[in-house]
Amino acid sequence: MTREVVLSARPQGVPQEGDFEVRETDERDLADGEVLVRNVFVSVDPYMRGRMTGVRTYVAPYEVGGPIDGGAVGRVVASKHESVAEGDWVLSQLGWCEAGVAEGKRLRRLDPALAAPSTALGALGMPGFTAWIGLTEIADVKEGETLYVSGAAGAVGSAAVQIAKLKGLHVIGSAGSDEKVEWLRSLGVEAFNYRETRAKDALADGIDVYFDNVGGDQLEAAFAALRPFGRVAACGAISRYNDQQPEPGPRNMAFIVGKRLRVQGFIVSDHFARFDDFLREVGPWVAEGKLECRETMLEGIENVPTAFAGLFRGDNTGKMLVRVGPDEPSGV
Amino acid sequence: MTREVVLSARPQGVPQEGDFEVRETDERDLADGEVLVRNVFVSVDPYMRGRMTGVRTYVAPYEVGGPIDGGAVGRVVASKHESVAEGDWVLSQLGWCEAGVAEGKRLRRLDPALAAPSTALGALGMPGFTAWIGLTEIADVKEGETLYVSGAAGAVGSAAVQIAKLKGLHVIGSAGSDEKVEWLRSLGVEAFNYRETRAKDALADGIDVYFDNVGGDQLEAAFAALRPFGRVAACGAISRYNDQQPEPGPRNMAFIVGKRLRVQGFIVSDHFARFDDFLREVGPWVAEGKLECRETMLEGIENVPTAFAGLFRGDNTGKMLVRVGPDEPSGV
Hints:
Number of domains of chain A: 2
Largest sheet of chain A: 7 strands, mixed
CATH superfamily of the largest domain in chain A: Medium-chain alcohol dehydrogenases, catalytic domain
Number of helices of chain A: 9
Oligomer: homodimer
Order of helices and strands of chain A: EEEHEEEEHEHEHEHEHEHEHEHE
CATH topology of the largest domain in chain A: Quinone Oxidoreductase, Chain A, domain 1
Strand content of chain A: 25-35%
């Protein structure tokens, strides 16, 4: 018997722990090609908020009373698929559960000698890949340019600022606490606390590229600060995900024409053909310790909703994860 | 003695005829390389509004009490430059005057056998080139796509809709009067009057590309209607040029991420290297009558301010021009 978290109600506004409940699940036999995985790390990610509204966007919504799939890293307990074996570390989309059955072909095997397995949910996983795609494919950053990243201490943001530093950019980042700002400064980022300093002031010397994780006021400040031919990689807008009424956009949209800005939205899943290129460039940086993989870790499946809700309170520094089991393999 | 129009006060909000005055100017002798041009057609263009505010943007502001340079087509009265001769039709930047002295190297000679000289201010000039750059370089339109053009009966818009039709797109266009809508329909455009029909309804079947001349509500409607991977060529925002307070942007900016939109502003003067490519493609369409060059023509230098103010009232169908002299050459 294992446990999973299900959606018990569609969140209104900011997600509450009460919008979820823990449920026991039964084991079942494996069919050919299937694999039983015991999760070690469960990921909570801001994009999951959109899937809870019940509106079909670029990814199917979660159903009330149903499970919440998403990124998870675990170990194989039993396998009926040729390319994974008992004991393997694997990345799955099993989501918010202690264990589950996955199709073997949908698992990515992880080599714990190359990088800590949990990084497959962070700097070497979807968030890191998102950062890399946004900087390279979308914003086309160049050495010597000035980049501004909002939500810079988050999973995507902290990968973006570090990748950009390694590519020779000058990087400005914002975050919501002094501790986060201090960490960002230790990474060589010109960081500021957006609760104390207005982005407008922090960006007064101008920027070439804005990596937008936040939307709202930060986007307006970036439009004002962008130099001619500036680019915006529009990754997300966490400040808006819980809006119950749509908020107006920036008052300075005219800069898009006047400064010939390019504002481009992207969803990382459109770019998976480039995942190996990403790993080839960023993998060594992680292995060599040039890219720091900070994590905020909670414990226990029952705390996944708290971890998720915490994303919108800014509880995490780096990647938010929940440990739902020990590293060492054992029966489910 | 000839006359010119000068800026007598910086317009507050919508430009008024009283913001300008007509002044007499003296002749002067030509220096080497200079040319005396008698204007036949003077152009009024929406972008000139921005130059009247006194704020330096991508082009120098007009000064109070000073002349208003801009596109004009005229005939050479006297030349001290080897490549233009008396009687030649030329495009200049002499602007709102009956005659003036220009550097010969800054003039473009026009061949009246190829196209009516006034088209050098419209479909074969800056507005037409703006339309072509927006469609090709910025929005990268493809045969079979659906394009929406706001301000579709204006100088840029009417070129954009026709070029797009000739390139095999399905074209929707909006304008502010039934007469304009009728004209657009005669061009094969699915046209609607935005004062009577909401863009949201007119675009309900979805669009791939939006050519934005207007900004404001139309941009919000376009964000809602754009299909995944849609593009916006942000050319201008005539609905906002006279704002005294900045207005908020679209309430649905989240679509930029969710639908992976690309919103790109552009200024045609960045693209002059491609002007010959433009003329090679669009010139024959004008010569063969496949692209209709509709003009709204006022008469007399004293009516240039009225023509200009009329742009913001939607007085023009096609290119707004003022005839300030006869076609045939004569002394100034």
